[in-house]
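Standup notes
- DV: blocked on the single-chain target, sequence here:
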Amino acid sequence: MARFNTRLSLRTTEVDRQLLATPVALLGMFQEAAVRQAEQLGRGPRWLHRQGLGWAIAHTRARFLGAPGWPGEVLVTTWASQMNRFLSRREFLIEDPAGQLLVAGSSLWAFMDMHRRKMIGIPQRVRAAYRVDPARALETVFTRPRSPSARQPVTRRVVGERHIDFNGHANNLDMLGWMLEQLPAEAGRRRLREVNIRYQQEILCDQEIAIRSEPAGNERPSLLWRHGIYRGGEQTPLALAETSWQPAPAGET
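- DV (later): unblocked, structure below
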């Protein structure tokens, strides 16, 4: 079957002050489900490492309809909706135990030669392992997010070993987390509605990066934001994102 289902339990390290799953945790469930399917098909991280190969996420779009609370369990469904020579499109659904849809998302994945750190075509032995279901969890176009203005202040950091994943570069979840950390305090009184994030270049250990965010909406506080991660010189974008927000439901503070 093309579709893969897995149940995941929410951990206390993945929730906010209201004990609700954070956006980073929910996108982490996307990643976990994709890896588990690959492992089931015999093309998981260990097999890829032996071949000197690896997947690299290029773009993610997600729509958040709700957030599970702790303690709780969710059902994550994922499948490849498209797989050509150079890119794979993957779909995700997260539902609560009653079948209520919480998050829908789509992502684009490229393939890497891990020794040369270069993008390559998806090998036939990998493509052949997956069945494709063309249905989409999220009907969307992968538009390039706009970069925040260079006039905005930046936060600088050096990427540490704890941010490096099994592909040898900074994990995409850390990159999203760095962007969201730039938001002002009132962000805690809002809920993420949509995210559009594009990963343009990999980030390596000990690399200095600059992170910038900018309000893009007319509301005060803004419900639309642009985010960027750049090389230390602030000119070359490594990742760009746009996020849209909505007020938190009554009772959340």
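- Follow-up: The longest strand covers residues 101-113.
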